[in-house]
Amino acid sequence: MGLVAWFMDSSEEDQRKPHKLTPDQPVSLEELRQLGVFHWKLNADIYETDPELEKIRKDQGYSYMDIISIHKDILPNYEEKLKRFFEEHLHLDDEIRYILDGQAYFDVRDQEERWIRIAMRKGDLITLPAGIYHRFTLDETNYTKAMRLFVGEPVWKAYNRPADDSDIRKKYVTSLQGC
């Protein structure tokens, strides 16, 4: 099954629920690509030796990698971190995540400020461009294990919205003008 994404409702209900509009308004991979969001489907069972993952890392320059497990019994300060991940923010670098197990959601803003929810499952590798407003949450299974990839040393700094005046946000918005 390929990546599934949709426009979200504006409900304040539990962030881990799907939040689909009625009727559902799916978002295609092409629409995500126009926002600078890219996706690969890999075999997470062989991530340690996967030649396809190695090729992507080499081609994209993803030299740093670590693995994070997000579950209340594993991650210290679980509730606090989940709240922080779900605050709307951007980064100065691309955000690259590869789901090795479990499930989660990435939410990104489109050009009209609408939220798009991207359902991430085992084997999904996604890149979010620097400057895109986004947030992350688990789904109702309350567990994911993800590889975090970076070009060079990792930078964990998030810039919460509003960050519209930042150079990286302006660069990102300008990059959308050609779409």
UniProtKB/TrEMBL annotation:
One of its GO terms (cellular component) is plasma membrane. One of its GO terms (biological process) is L-methionine salvage from methylthioadenosine. Coiled coil: none annotated. Its EC number is 1.13.11.53, 1.13.11.54. Pfam families: ARD (PF03079). It comes from the Eukaryota. Ni(2+) binds at H89, H91, E95, H134. It is an enzyme of class 1 (oxidoreductase). Its main location: cytoplasm. It is a peripheral membrane protein. Its cofactor is Ni(2+); Fe(2+). Pathway: Amino-acid biosynthesis; L-methionine biosynthesis via salvage pathway; L-methionine from S-methyl-5-thio-alpha-D-ribose 1-phosphate: step 5/6. Keywords: Amino-acid biosynthesis, Cell membrane, Cytoplasm, Dioxygenase, Iron, Membrane, Metal-binding, Methionine biosynthesis, Nickel, Nucleus, Oxidoreductase. It catalyses: 1,2-dihydroxy-5-(methylsulfanyl)pent-1-en-3-one + O2 = 3-(methylsulfanyl)propanoate + CO + formate + 2 H(+); 1,2-dihydroxy-5-(methylsulfanyl)pent-1-en-3-one + O2 = 4-methylsulfanyl-2-oxobutanoate + formate + 2 H(+). It is found in: Cytoplasm; Nucleus; Cell membrane. This is Acireductone dioxygenase. It comes from Gymnodraco acuticeps (Antarctic dragonfish).
